[in-house]
Design brief:
heterodimer; A: mainly beta; 6-stranded antiparallel β-sheet; 3-stranded antiparallel β-sheet; 2 helices; 10% helix; 37% strand; B: mainly beta; OB fold (Dihydrolipoamide Acetyltransferase, E2P); 1 helix; 41% strand
Chain lengths: 168, 157
């Protein structure tokens, strides 16, 4: 059988713009609505009111945040709402010099998982750190939430603008 | 989970609305490039032929699906065919009612072993029948851009 290998061609932006290559565009309508459920609905309502809330498990006594209606460790239904502080400890963090859509940043964004005070060990939420020198961020750093003004809150985790280091 | 956990007021329930912006570009490929360029520039169909298997590929393929041989035998095909099967569409992709129903058909092209899916025009839905002879109606040359929609529709001969 005759062997045939086509040259691989790298297409550049100009090839499309100047009509050197024929193509179809596909722009699907991918809007969606996600039902937040019982636990996350309450969590988002409390965020709108400027509070953090968790759920506790009667079996292992862990306090879970974000709240869920069952404990993923013992499969017991959680049974109690637990108000939590809006302060916590940096569990892990990253310095990002590119945004999600690949724009280069001079000043890095610092996403971090913050273990929330009052919740069990390792229970935290992912958020951004702000008002902080990227070089001084460290695991174990104490941080507190900076809330958006009440009229700007919509019931979203972004009702917290960011977490900033606590003054000791 | 007990009844106590049930949401009592619809206002307590959150729906999270989002959008996934995804735009794709699909290049037509090496054989497709030749096929669509010919439609754009000359308003003609091209097919590839496997002489060993006696198959005429429409739309053209670069290799034979039976014997995997590379195909470099190109053949001009008349824009004539027959309705193989058809359906009448009343709604668009967003489930909105169309002002005029569209007839979509698979049209086998004469002297080939393949065909194209396309609209039928200049005909009422209840006049269409299987095996109806049709011909392609091309857009004018300055409106063609190298796409399957350069064919406006197929109409009865």
């Amino acid at each position: 059988m005759k062997e045939f290998v086509y040259d691989s061609v790298y297409l550049r932006r100009e090839d499309f713009e100047e009509g050197r290559v024929l193509f179809e565009t596909w722009d699907p309508n991918a809007r969606y609505a996600w039902d937040a459920g019982v636990a996350i609905s309450r969590y988002l309502q409390e965020l709108r009111a400027g509070r953090l809330i968790g759920r506790s498990c009667p079996e292992c006594n862990r306090v879970l945040i974000p709240p869920r209606m069952f404990c993923e460790s013992c499969f017991y239904p959680t049974d109690r709402w637990v108000p939590l502080e809006d302060t916590g400890t940096v569990l892990t963090f990253s310095r990002c010099y590119v945004t999600w859509d690949m724009v280069k940043l001079e000043k890095p964004q610092i996403p971090a998982v913050v273990e929330i005070d009052g919740a069990s060990q390792g229970m935290g939420i992912m958020h951004m750190l702000g008002e902080v020198d990227p070089d001084t961020v460290a695991i174990g750093m104490r941080v507190g939430a900076v809330w958006k003004p009440p009229e700007e809150r919509v019931g979203s985790v972004n009702d917290i603008a960011y977490f900033r280091p606590l003054e000791d | 989970m007990s009844l106590l956990h049930r949401i009592q007021h619809a206002d307590d329930m959150f729906n999270w609305h989002g959008d996934m912006p995804t735009e794709g570009r699909y290049t037509v490929g090496i054989a497709g490039e030749k096929f669509f360029r010919e439609i754009k520039d000359n308003g003609k169909f091209l097919a590839t032929v496997c002489l060993d298997c006696d198959i005429t590929y429409m739309p053209p393929r670069l290799y034979c699906e039976q014997c995997f041989a590379q195909l470099d035998e190109w053949l001009e095909v008349d824009p004539l065919g027959h309705v193989h099967t058809f359906t009448v569409v009343h709604h668009n992709l967003d489930e909105e009612l169309l002002p005029d129903p569209q007839i979509i058909a698979f049209i086998t092209l004469d002297d080939t072993d393949g065909g194209l899916v396309h609209y039928l025009g200049e005909v009422e839905a209840d006049e269409v029948y299987l095996g109806m002879p049709v011909e392609a109606v091309f857009k004018s040359e300055d409106e063609r851009e190298g796409s399957i929609t350069d064919i406006e529709y197929f109409r009865p001969v």
